[in-house]
Design goal:
With 337 residues, the protein is an alpha/beta fold. The protein has 13 helices and 14 strands. Strands 2-4-5-6-7-8-10 form a 7-stranded parallel β-sheet. Helix 7 links the parallel strand 7 (158-165) and strand 8 (189-194). Helix 2 packs parallel to helix 3 and helix 7 runs parallel beside helix 9 (217-233). It starts with a strand and ends with a strand.
């Protein structure tokens, strides 16, 4: 095994197991693309493939996602942890990451997770509005998120929180409020998932009955860009923005904000808004050079040069160059003579 290389997560799905509720948006088999019961052999096969490659062992994890990990049968949960733990003991991975419900966390469960090398716990908060949580049949309240988050941090785990936009009964103002309340809980990481409507869900029924209007991709891009900036300014890392591509998502998708390059589209919009605001305020016309961080050039340019084309409509003929002096999501403009 070679050390070094990039961070990886061995993502293992425990589909819908243990979850006492069927939330309005949930069709876990469609989201994960997995329906069968996870076994020790599955874990070992995935881990053995990974350890043969080159990756950053100090920052890579085995991750149990899907369903509600700490709400599954206790013996089965420990069986999965015992199957993964040898790879933690041998130093192949820094620890185990799991995701679960806020109301499936208590001190006893946290002690078990600690015993088997779990280092990071993500909670599916989804919203910090009790009204929205109830309308989407979550079965927990915002206070459960706060209580579980406090316990997780107190026990020394890395805390991750997941939120959704565009839920039934949600709006931009409520989503921003959710982000503000999540920031107050000081998680290390956040995932933001715009709601998508999947077959065989309550949302699919509500959509067909005309009772639910999903976010468009454009609406979600505008909102999620703002949320991304909020978390960045709070020094909270957004480790996922948009639903994972792959699995059966494309086949089960009916409506909502889904695109395999959703995060890049949000970041590209942030750059356009930043630059266009300057151009409008300073009444800039003609040829300009836009400087951004070198890693961000493609985002400033936009897919199929869409940002360059939109700036042309404002009267600016732009080209984009890299500069290490410019921080992420910012830009500098130089007018050409």
């Amino acid at each position: 095994m070679k050390d070094g290389g990039k961070h990886i997560n061995i993502a293992l799905f425990v589909p819908h197991a243990g979850c006492p509720h069927t939330c309005s948006f949930c069709n876990q088999k469609t989201i994960s693309g997995v329906g069968k019961r996870l076994t020790k052999e599955d874990i070992e096969k995935a881990a053995e493939i990974a350890v043969k490659g080159e990756y950053d062992r100090a920052n890579s994890e085995i991750a149990f996602f899907g369903g509600s990990f700490t709400a599954i049968d206790r013996d089965y949960m420990e069986y999965l942890l015992q199957s993964a733990y040898p790879y933690i003991e041998k130093g192949y991975f820094k620890g185990i990451r799991c995701s679960t419900r806020p109301d499936a966390i208590d001190e006893e469960i946290l002690n078990i997770l600690k015993k088997y090398g779990v280092t990071a716990i993500e909670l599916g908060a989804q919203s910090m509005s009790d009204r929205v949580l109830a309308m989407n049949e979550r079965g927990h309240r915002a206070e459960d998120v706060a209580k579980a988050s406090g316990l997780i941090k107190e026990k020394g785990f890395e805390l991750g929180l997941q939120m959704m936009t565009g839920l039934y009964g949600d709006d931009d103002e409520t989503a921003v409020s959710t982000a503000e309340k999540i920031i107050e809980l000081k998680p290390e990481t956040v995932r933001i998932y715009p709601t998508v409507v999947l077959e065989n869900t309550t949302l699919a029924r509500l959509l067909r009955e005309g009772k639910y209007k999903p976010q468009t991709t454009e609406e979600a891009i505008s909102l999620c860009g703002k949320l991304l900036l909020m978390f960045r300014e709070a020094n909270i890392k957004v480790i996922r923005l948009g639903l994972h591509s792959g699995g059966n998502v494309e086949e089960g998708f009916i409506a909502g904000a889904y695109h395999p390059a959703f995060r890049e589209m949000c970041e590209s919009r942030l750059y356009f808004d930043y630059v266009s605001d300057i151009i409008k305020k300073e009444n800039i016309k003609g040829k300009i050079t836009i400087y951004v961080n070198p890693s961000e050039i493609s985002k400033m340019t936009g897919q199929k040069k869409c940002n360059i084309l939109k700036l042309r409509e404002l009267g600016a003929e732009a080209k984009v160059k890299g500069s290490e002096a410019v921080e992420k999501y910012k830009a500098q403009i130089k007018c050409e003579e």
